[in-house]
Structure prediction request, 160 residues.
Amino acid sequence: MTQSSHQEIRRLIACSAGDLSQAQQAMLREHLQDCTACRDYAAATADIVRALRGVPLAADSRLIRQTQARVRARAFALRQRQQWLTLVALACPLVGLSAAVTTPLIWRAFEWIGTRAGFSPPVWQVGFAFYCTVPALLVSVLLLLRGTHLAHNGHSQESS
Prediction:
């Protein structure tokens, strides 16, 4: 067997059995039956893991409180995000329904105003198009800028 094959087997030994596929587990068992060096490596690795699990681990109470506070803060942030996403998911169909109902009415209003003001149809139709698209474009730009701002803040916090 090649050196790279032994390296692959050692990588599999380092993994938890639950993390390996059935094929990987079968390959590992088969290799360990034939290879004394890898079998010794697996036994030594198992001994080290057992020894490490036997070492009592003590954490400072301040560290525990800080970790618990961070976990609570993260859970709270995730709940808020989920509530926000639910609100957005509910608002989207309502906005679509509102647009479907009001767009024909606004079209007729632009047509009426355009006719009364003496504008040609292409002029008031372009006005209608701007009326419909400009707010969406502005909101899109604002959301993109907000996302860029958040991305830069997240990046600067990671590098700190």
DSSP finds five helices and no strands in the chain. The helical segments are 3-14, 22-34, 36-54, 61-117, 121-159. The mean pLDDT is 86. The two ends are 47 Å apart (CA to CA).
